[in-house]
Specification:
Organism: Limosilactobacillus mucosae
GO cellular component, one term: membrane
Protein name: Two-component system regulatory protein YycI
Number of helices: 4
Order of helices and strands: HEEEHEEHEEEEEEEHEEEE
Distance between the termini: 56 Å
Structural class: alpha+beta
Helix content: 25-40%
Largest sheet: 14 strands, mixed
CATH topology of the largest domain: TATA-Binding Protein
InterPro entries: YycI-like
Keywords: Membrane, Transmembrane, Transmembrane helix
CATH class of the largest domain: Alpha Beta
Strand content: 35-45%
Shape: globular
């Protein structure tokens, strides 16, 4: 074996050795940082319980989502209302308002059992198959179905079916908003976890002492307005109830950048999101 060949063997061997050492160092550093972060989060969760804030187990799993654009389908609803039967319908500012000819009796505990059948009939509800019952948002007086974007519910007044419930658990009518021209603007990206969203709210003093976090769900909420469409972003929607007063509040956390969502979306040029 010549000397040149021996030199190359040593060079390759030392290179592999350096790569292995570097890998162990990077993995170890990442693991240490992850353990430290988890320890800090557990400390904050303990502080929350000391402040008499109650909550169920919070998931640490990071999920994924998109920037998505959509447009309120005012003209599309207007063009299709003639298909509806057994109700009187009018349109107001892009919202379809229906009064049923015959009220629908619904179950108090599971109103979706009757309404799922109703909305799947295209002569009763337009595009009903694109909505799903949302138990968390519903109340005794209002049953809410939400439209979905990429498999997740839309939070807010857009893309909703709202059934009003009267006496004897009867539905007398509904309102509908509908989103169309839904487009993904950017590739899939990782979101913060449910636990991270709740901790962020607590650290920024949005969760009062002596309260209960009733639920935290990931969906889509409107964050930006373009010239003719709205932009939706993955959002943690959190319901909090104050134990002493019974007051309920809903908070929204942008699941991409950990910021509180604005009530009035910011207006931008849509080309910023396509880059």
């Amino acid at each position: 074996m010549n000397f040149k060949r021996i030199q190359w063997i040593f060079v390759i061997a030392f290179t592999i050795f350096d790569v292995v050492l570097a890998s162990y160092f990077l993995i170890g550093t990442h693991f240490t940082a992850m353990v430290k972060q988890q320890s800090q989060q557990q400390t904050i969760l303990k502080e929350m319980r000391n402040d008499e804030i109650s909550f169920a187990n919070l998931s640490t799993k990071q999920q994924t989502g998109y920037y998505i654009s959509g447009k309120r389908a005012n003209s599309q609803l207007a063009a299709a209302v003639n298909k509806l039967n057994d109700q009187s319908v009018r349109l107001s500012n892009g919202m379809l308002i229906s009064e049923l000819t015959s009220p629908i009796k619904v179950s108090m505990l599971n109103p979706d059992q009757q309404l799922n059948v109703f909305i799947k009939n295209s002569h009763h509800v337009l595009y009903g198959s694109q909505y799903a019952y949302n138990r968390d948002l519903s109340t005794a007086n209002t049953i809410i179905y939400t439209q979905k974007m990429e498999g997740r519910a839309v939070f807010g007044s857009e893309g909703q079916l709202r059934f009003k419930v009267g006496k004897n658990h009867k539905v007398y009518g509904y309102t509908q908003t509908y989103l169309n021209n839904i487009q993904v603007l950017r590739p899939r990206a990782v979101t913060i976890s449910q636990q991270e969203a709740v901790i962020w709210l607590y650290k920024h003093n949005y969760i009062p002492n002596n309260s209960k976090i009733r639920w935290a769900k990931l969906g889509y909420a409107k964050t930006l307005l373009t010239k003719d469409q709205a932009v939706y972003v993955p959002t943690w929607y959190v319901e909090i109830k104050t134990k002493s007063s019974g007051d309920v509040q809903h908070l929204r956390v942008n699941a991409f950048n950990s910021t509180l969502m604005r009530d009035t979306p910011q207006e931008i040029d849509t080309t910023q999101l396509n880059q």
